[in-house]
Amino acid sequence: MPARLKLFLPLILFGVLALFLMRGLSLDPKELPSALIDKPFPAFTLPALGSDETLDRQAVTGEVALFNVWATWCVSCRVEHPYLTELAQQGVAIYGINYKDEDAAALRWLQQLGDPYIANIADREGTLGLDLGVYGAPETYLVDAEGVVRYRHVGVVDERVWTTVLQPIYVQLQGGERG
Q1: Helix extents (H) in the chain
Q2: What's the pTM value of the predicted model, to 2 decimals?
Q3: How far from the centroid of its chain's Cα atoms is residue 157's Cα?
Q4: What are the tens digits of pLDDT across the range 148-174?
Q5: I need a surface site. Which of 41, 118, 125, 157 has the fewest CB within 10 A?
């Protein structure tokens, strides 16, 4: 190797490494891939929050719905909660997955802030979250009437996310019924 090239080798390696790192940093963390897209919502049998009822996949599928992963320890969940309540009041079907939380704290939260959920799955150990590939809370999955996961959103669902991303898919899955 010529002596001059040896002088520039560290600079070339640094440039290649910098390009690689910049490419990695430009990825949007809210667009994390999900292996479940276009696959059935995972099978599970877990308790309903605050009840003796047991929920399973069949109990929470059958209509187009959002599945919102939330917890009382999640600051962002508190931010998105009022908007989820608005959506529920507009008729959007939302199921909660209370993730790695304490039942008493979760029930207090819902009593104080309102309960937008049709039902809440108490995922105390995070087993359903693990099957879903949850990175943390909040995460929201859009599931069609056949129980197939069609979209995953990582982060807060707010008006912008609803109107530009989730609502168009929700309406399409419902056959254009809702606006």
Answers
A1: 3-25, 57-60, 75-89, 103-113, 127-132, 159-161, 167-173
A2: 0.81
A3: 9
A4: 999 999 999 999 999 999 999 999 999
A5: 125
Domains by residue range for the chain, with CATH: 30-173 (3.40.30.10)
CB 154 within 8 A of CB 29: yes
Q: How far is CA 165 from CA 55, 87, 107, 161, in A?
A: 28, 14, 30, 5
What order do you get walking across the sheet with 139-143 strand by strand? Answer: 120-123, 94-99, 65-70, 139-143, 149-154
**Which tokens go with 110?**
């819902």
**Residues 61, 65, 70: CA angle, nearest 5 degrees:** 100
Q: How confident is the model over 1-19, as pLDDT tens digits?
A: 566 656 666 666 555 555 5
